[in-house]
Amino acid sequence: xxRYRALHTLVVQAAREGENSTNSYVExxxxxxxxxxxxxxxxxxxxxxxxxxSPHAVNIVAATxxxxxxxxxxxxxxxxxxxxxxMNAISExxxxxxRANQRLLVDTRLCxxxxxxxxxxxxxxxxxxxxxxxxxxxx
Length: 139
Fold this sequence. Notes:
The chain has helices at 2-16, 26-37, 42-49, 60-71, 80-94, 99-106, 110-119, 130-136.
């Protein structure tokens, strides 16, 4: 539990500071995880959730959902691509359908975070102007 609190603190701090994407590998790692599951690879989808025999197993599916939840309130041009990459990875984690990953995500705040993201107005985002965010979102 302490490990996850420390990770959460780092994620929130990076989101608040508007972490420069050139100094971060978040998008690259999320894209890699996305590609591992490409083509509905059930073995790797399950492995991301649980690594049998590992003394330090990490539930990457839940961690990715928690990442989205942690940065939702700080969405801006500096992290919108990272949140998009996380949501794309999550979509691959649950396809096939991978029922175990789907059930796991029901117990996270992912749906609440997705609703908050969809309800955002350009003038409610942290830091950037509406024009800057519109450009970052492709609009």
